[in-house]
Amino acid sequence: MTEPVPTKSTQEYPGQHKDLDPQPDLLKFRDGREHVGTGKLLNKRSIITGGDSGIGKAAAIMFAREGSDVVITCFHQELPDAEHTKDLIEKEGRKCHIFVADLSYSETCTNLVQFAVEKMGGIDVLVNNVAYQKLAETIEDISDEQWDHTFKTNIYSFFWITKAALKHMKPGSAIVNAASINAYVGRPDLSDYTSTKGAVVSFTRALSNQYASRGIRANAVAAGPIYTPLVHSTFPSEMIEVSNQVPMGRMGQPSEVASCYLFLACSDGGYITGQTIHPNGGTVVNG
């Protein structure tokens, strides 16, 4: 298995999958095996925001291997990575549609849902995965513009997309929201990002209570340090090394979080709603 080694120089935001060396594990696991599809999402239709790289990329490919067609989103500069994701999904025999946009705008989020319905005919699984983060030592270093953009990307988009998507989701559908370990440990140099991830947890709990009676589940995944382009475009290498200091002593791989997304999206997680899974390398957060 590949072991993430911090690069000597970080990437420019938002980072590129193709530039990571070694390449992240998208379908492989620590024991050397590769994810084997068993039809857990056969003929389902999924939206995965931020599906061009990192955890979203791994989830999109894993969902396709389980039988789902997928709509993924990316920024314009991430299109090469998104095209790579599409190629891998099509090799699994499923369809992939790319929506290029900045999801920090309400109209764009509504347009995404309409695009997905037009391309796939409906929505069975929604994975709100897109995120923005930028280091700031204290809140005094965070501009109003940064605070606003972080919230619009990391929680407003979840609200806007979910609100539009629920009109097309039937009983048995599932929503998976990307939270973060930072919502539980209160990372001081990402206070705006951390705040949005706390909002994601609360949003997920409220959403689950609203829609459980209608047969739609909503859960969250609060990942710890994961080997992704976002990490390498946000942190200097010495900080990445510190982030490896979890009980398991290593960063996680995208595949190890994507499998959590899959569990919550399919019927294996059919009796789970309003909960948060913590793939974080062993940090106990009691949340």
TrEMBL record:
Enumerate the InterPro entries for this protein: NAD(P)-bd_dom_sf, Sc_DH/Rdtase_CS, SDR_fam
Which residues does the annotated region (Disordered) include? Answer: 1-23
- According to its UniProt record, what is one Pfam family this protein matches? adh_short_C2
Query: In which domain of life is the source organism classified?
Result: Eukaryota
Annotated Gene Ontology MF terms?
Answer: oxidoreductase activity, acting on CH-OH group of donors
- UniProt keyword annotation of Transport present: no
Keyword Lyase (UniProt): no
Q: Mind telling me which SUPFAM superfamilies this protein's record contains?
A: NAD(P)-binding Rossmann-fold domains (SSF51735)
Alphabetical keyword list: NADP, Oxidoreductase
Q: Belongs to which family?
A: Belongs to the short-chain dehydrogenases/reductases (SDR) family.
Q: What is this protein called?
A: 3-hydroxyacyl-CoA dehydrogenase
Q: From what organism does this protein derive?
A: Schizosaccharomyces cryophilus (strain OY26 / ATCC MYA-4695 / CBS 11777 / NBRC 106824 / NRRL Y48691)
